[in-house]
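Database export, one record per block. Field names are fixed; values are copied verbatim from the stored entry.
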Amino acid sequence: MDRGSILRVWLPLLVGLWGLGWLYLYGIGPCDGLRLFGLILGLAGLAGVILARYTLGRSFSIAPKATALVTSGIYSRIRNPIYVFGVIFAAGIFLMLRKPALWLLLLVVIPMQIVRARREARVLEATFGDAYREYRRRTWF
């Protein structure tokens, strides 16, 4: 295990698990089924983000760039799993926090993620051409 994978994968996983656990145990509101469902959603979202991040490895970047076309693992089914699972993670947190106004954030974040995904798709298509178009045809979002 190198220093890069610790910073890219394991540290965010530990921080995310600690945060979800703390929110579940000490967050505002009752500790009931809704809070448990929020925890389960949060854990599923966190697991998906970490798995996607691990699969990307050094191909991950904030700004769209095409270093490699990753089509294995979770990327064999979903083109943008970090975005998808990030929304699931946020939904879990919002359920645990019980602040309805937070759900409005998703009305802003989801369209932003769609725009980012389209920008990334243009960069990947320009670089990888037919290989990317075939990949896009057989995957979701």
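Remark 1: The first helix runs from residue 3 to 26.
Remark 2: The chain has five helices and no strands.
End of record.
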